[in-house]
């Protein structure tokens, strides 16, 4: 039947985003002034890369370079290709050996020349994505330096913007005209087709003009400009049994010629053509415009110098429990970190690689603060109102622990002041050189929902994202609402321009014992996963290029 052709799994024809594959990064390794271990010639170095699985402390060999004979300053030809995940701390270890045998067994290499540790984020986040580190590990010796260069692998990053109209399409509806939409498929090697785009439905017309749409060239033809692209035209029906009007084929190369007589296509229904001698077509489709530009990635902005500015806000309300009692979420045990400290470490350890000065403003809210005991919803953890920044994540943890001894937990739980605090900073840097990330760690029930919603709607226009980690056993319904994944947040009839909030309940990642590290890596991954897209959505909306 015409209507059923190719319609399996189409559902309602809402235009949908194309999923983005993982970013792949190519690492190039060079060394300078390596140790000379050979008596009669120079060392013959090889570099071995080790990685860790998220949450595991076990190093696994990832790969090794070729051996370069007689060189203390090798530039290795062999590259390491890694999947880059912004939301994970990807630990890397580079070991250098002087090779004296052909055996793959490292113990027979005999001479260890030194090693370096870093994260993939540290390399990517360095100026020009180039990191130089001293090699260490041979007591009493200078081991030289290692130079690591990261480059994003070129998989076609072009995005095409297309617009189509149609003329004199077949009338399919008994009452009124057709409600046409188009479905695009790219051909596969085996002759099958994969759906890659659906237009919106234009109601009640045989001469629709569809809205322009952007699609990665990768999705349209995967880089092969001559690969067939099939387009099917349907009349939308509410019950999903959309009527097939006809189809045509084209290719990226043809479409790229833009508006011309070549890009006017006859829409043909093969069944009708077989049945009717005088059948010409079921209408025509015309390409109105075509443009292509390179899609910028998160890494393009980081490489271009965009810094992530990280601020922490910690909930000091009384509902957390008395900090001197082991049942309190703020209890400082000599044996293990509390939930606040764990969440801060998990997220902060990754973000700090992307912040060159490693100075992090840290605020508290919901406590009575000295000297007069007034309730504050944005007090500096380090006690310095003029400069609440702490050095590194270790500095934030230290300031947090000192604050617990200084302030009295109180209430209510107001988020708006800390959101507005970061928004004020973000509003002064709109040129894309900085992007602000606020981490709020809270035990839950929010007291100023209306004000917080308004603050978030205003902040959505600024270069900032908000991460909320909920600790403890409270119901976090309000946080899920702020997250805005399902329904975009609004305030006084104004809808947030972007989704900038990510909420994660800490208890989902709480596992005691040996798996605790794994759950912290999972927490970091979940919490940070949306930041790259949120940064891109801001840059795109503002037309900021890397």
From TrEMBL:
The gene is Cpne5. SUPFAM superfamilies: C2 domain (Calcium/lipid-binding domain, CaLB) (SSF49562), vWA-like (SSF53300). Belongs to the copine family. It comes from the Eukaryota. Residues 5-135, 142-265 form the C2 domain. SMART domains: C2, VWA. One of its GO terms (biological process) is cellular response to calcium ion. This is CPNE5 protein. Residues 1-22 are annotated as: Disordered. GO terms for molecular function: calcium-dependent phospholipid binding; metal ion binding. Keywords: Calcium, Metal-binding, Repeat. Pfam families: C2, Copine. PROSITE patterns: C2. GO terms for cellular component: plasma membrane.
């Amino acid at each position: 039947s015409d209507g059923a052709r190719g319609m399996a799994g189409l559902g309602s024809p809402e235009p949908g985003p194309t999923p983005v594959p993982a970013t792949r990064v190519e690492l190039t390794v060079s060394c300078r002034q390596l140790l000379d271990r050979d008596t009669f010639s120079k060392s013959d170095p090889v570099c071995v890369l080790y990685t860790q699985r998220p949450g595991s402390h076990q190093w696994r060999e990832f790969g090794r370079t070729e051996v370069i004979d007689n060189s203390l300053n090798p530039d290795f030809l062999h590259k390491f290709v890694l999947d880059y995940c912004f939301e994970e701390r990807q630990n890397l270890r580079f070991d250098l050996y002087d090779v004296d045998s052909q055996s793959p067994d490292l113990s027979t290499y005999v001479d260890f020349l030194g090693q370096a540790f870093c994260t993939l984020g540290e390399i990517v986040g360095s100026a020009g994505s180039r990191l130089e580190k001293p090699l260490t590990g041979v007591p009493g010796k200078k081991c030289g330096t290692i130079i690591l260069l990261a480059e994003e692998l070129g998989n076609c990053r072009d995005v095409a913007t297309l617009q189509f109209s149609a003329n004199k399409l077949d009338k399919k509806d008994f009452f009124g005209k057709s409600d046409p939409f188009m479905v695009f498929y790219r051909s596969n090697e085996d002759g099958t087709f994969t759906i890659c785009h659906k237009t919106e439905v234009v109601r009640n017309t045989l001469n629709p003009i569809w809205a322009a749409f952007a699609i990665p060239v990768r999705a349209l033809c995967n880089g092969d400009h001559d690969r067939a692209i099939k387009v099917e035209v349907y009349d939308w029906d509410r019950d999903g049994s959309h009527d097939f009007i006809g189809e045509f084929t084209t290719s990226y190369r043809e479409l790229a010629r833009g508006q011309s007589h070549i890009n006017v296509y006859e829409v043909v229904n093969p069944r009708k053509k077989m049945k009717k001698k005088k059948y010409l077509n079921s209408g025509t489709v015309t390409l109105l415009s075509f443009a292509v530009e390179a899609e910028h990635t998160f890494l393009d902005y980081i490489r271009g110098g965009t810094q992530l500015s990280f601020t922490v806000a910690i909930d000091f309300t009384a509902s957390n429990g008395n900090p001197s009692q082991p049942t309190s979420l703020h209890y400082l045990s000599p044996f293990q970190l509390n939930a606040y400290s764990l969440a801060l470490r998990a997220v902060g350890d990754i973000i700090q690689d992307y912040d060159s000065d490693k100075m992090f403003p840290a605020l508290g809210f919901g406590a009575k603060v000295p000297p007069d005991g007034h309730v504050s919803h944005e007090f500096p953890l380090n006690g310095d109102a003029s400069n609440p920044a702490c050095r590194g994540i270790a500095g934030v943890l230290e300031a947090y622990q000192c604050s617990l001894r200084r302030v009295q937990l109180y209430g209510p739980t107001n988020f708006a002041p800390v959101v507005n605090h970061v928004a004020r900073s973000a509003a002064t840097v709109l040129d894309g050189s900085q992007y602000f990330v606020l981490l709020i760690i809270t035990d839950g029930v929010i007291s100023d929902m209306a004000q917080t919603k308004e603050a978030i709607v205003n902040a959505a226009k600024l270069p900032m994202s908000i991460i909320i980690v909920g600790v403890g056993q409270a119901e976090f319904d309000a946080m899920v609402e702020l997250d805005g994944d399902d329904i975009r947040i609004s305030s006084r009839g104004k809808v947030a321009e972007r989704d900038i909030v990510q909420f994660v309940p800490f208890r989902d990642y709480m596992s005691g014992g040996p798996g605790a590290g794994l759950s912290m890596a999972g927490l970091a991954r979940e919490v940070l996963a949306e930041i790259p897209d949120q940064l891109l959505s801001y840059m795109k909306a503002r037309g900021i290029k890397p």
